[in-house]
Design goal:
Chain lengths: 112, 114
């Protein structure tokens, strides 16, 4: 069965610093991978997804993620953090039949 | 505008009451899902549907039930609410065509059972 592991329940960065949120997956078949963002008291919004096309995926709000099969990783990055990026970020893998398995989430804290 | 809606957004209710959480989508999607999310935790799939008259249980056992009489509507019901049902419930939908794995989420219903 597919699964994802998100390292670090909390990540703190300063405004303008690089954002790196880690996600490793386990899958017996080529996976579909997703990053979602959740702002307080809201649902999840899709940031980006990998569906076996380009390994570097660009998403909304300046985020991107790189699929590395050799490392079974799909880390999320943003060159320069903004205060508005403070939120909970979830990595997810598709189990097929469009069922998603989510990681435990990483809360991004951005300080001025 | 195509979207997915959930009502109510917040609900405080006493033990033993029957409740229905509403979810509607105007995106024309066949597949719909219910997730349960405890504070600071991951989402767990509790129900899903491939289309009208189709309902399946998810990975996390739940005492709730769902129905799918219309494509756009996927309500979740708890016959007798208990404090252990306190959680956030998120509804989502997706297209049914292959390669369209993206799920779109509603804003969620935060339920507190006293």
């Amino acid at each position: 069965a597919q699964s994802v592991t998100q390292l670090g329940s909390h990540v703190s960065v300063s405004e303008g610093a690089l954002v790196l949120l880690r996600c490793n997956y386990s899958s017996s078949v080529p996976p579909y991978l997703f990053w979602y963002v959740q702002y307080p008291n809201q649902g999840l919004q899709l940031l980006l997804k990998y569906t076996s096309a380009a390994t570097l995926v660009k998403g909304i709000n300046g985020f991107e993620a790189e699929f590395k099969k050799s490392e079974t990783s799909f880390h999320l990055t943003k060159p320069s953090a903004h205060m508005s990026d403070a939120a909970e970020y979830f990595c997810a893998v598709s189990q097929g039949f469009q069922k998603l398995v989510f990681g435990t989430g990483t809360r991004l804290l951005v300080s001025p | 505008e195509a979207d997915i809606y959930q009502t109510p957004r917040y609900l405080v209710i006493g033990t033993g009451k029957k409740i229905t959480l509403e979810c509607s989508q105007t995106m024309g999607h066949d597949k719909m899902y219910w997730y349960q999310q405890d504070p600071g935790m991951e989402l767990h799939l509790i129900h899903y549907s491939y289309g009208v008259n189709s309902t399946e249980k998810g990975d996390l056992s739940s005492e709730s039930t769902v129905s799918r009489i219309r494509t756009e509507h996927f309500p979740l019901t708890l016959e007798s609410a208990r404090p252990s049902h306190t959680s956030q419930y998120l509804c989502a939908s997706s297209e049914s065509s292959p390669m369209q794995e993206t799920q779109y989420f509603g804003p969620g219903t935060r339920l507190l059972v006293l």
